[in-house]
Amino acid sequence: MTTTLRVFVDGIAFWAPTLPGWEVARAAFGGDGMAVDPPLKRPSPDLLAPAERRRAPDSVALAIEVASAAARDADRDPKTLASVFTSAHGDLAVNDYMCTTLATAPTQLSPTRFHNSVHNAASGYWTIGTGCHATSTALTAFGRSFAAGLLEAATQCATDGDAVLLVAFDVQAVGALSTVTKSDGLLATALVLAPERGPRTRAGFELTLESGPADAVALRSTAALALAGNAMADALPLFEALAGATQATLTMPLSASLALRLVPIAS
């Protein structure tokens, strides 16, 4: 028996150096806008205090920026939102620093940099900054991390009957780690998923699991293709679809033998 999950998108957020915000990204994905030139370096989320903002690594700045924007877009109180944070690699720059320092000068390891190296650092900053006591999950599934995060968030949303914030992000691979894993630039996305259609609903989907391999969904826009080197690029087809309000079905690979099928719900 196949289980179908129904979720509705109440909030959308997006950030990349060339597409800093969902309105810019939506226009570029739809062919009605241009990428920002020169690209921005990184976001500066208001949720973090100035000192924290300076010390926070790129991964945290990205995640907090889109999480805050998605909650605002959905008109939801961040304190009440359960959340799922997903990233293929966490912060590769921090982990490169950690490995290099441990190999060359271990007594000089920074405690601040150390606590930013854990995979759930971004979710920790978010829950502390917002005072949120709702459930928070951090996960990874390598190159299929967005699809895995979407499945987790949709499952929680349908099971608990309440909205869930999905935050997905990855950063540039640097140093020795860049020789064994690939990720270009910065990319972060966020969605607020709700179990029922509401006044803020932008789109709705029915999600089912399918057995067997599936090819990655082809990107259509020049703006999305320019971001395809980031480890969170598997999020891009869904955001292209949201930008165009397309009624096309998406099949997103989860593994070599499993895929997540998204069928749009008619408005």
Structure notes:
There is one protein chain. This protein has one domain (8-203, 218-247): Thiolase/Chalcone synthase (Peroxisomal Thiolase, Chain A, domain 1, 3-Layer(aba) Sandwich), CATH 3.40.47.10. An 8-stranded mixed sheet has the order 3-2-4-5-1-6-8-7, with helices on both faces. The protein is α+β, with helices and mostly antiparallel strands. Helix content is 33%, strand content 21%. A hairpin with a 2-residue loop joins strand 7 (250-255) and strand 8 (258-264).
Radius of gyration over C-alpha positions, nearest whole angstrom:
18 Å
Q: Give the strand line-up of the largest sheet.
A: 3-2-4-5-1-6-8-7
Number of helices: 9
CATH architectural designation: 3-Layer(aba) Sandwich
CATH superfamily: Thiolase/Chalcone synthase
In short:
The chain has 267 residues and is an alpha+beta fold. The protein has nine helices and eight strands.
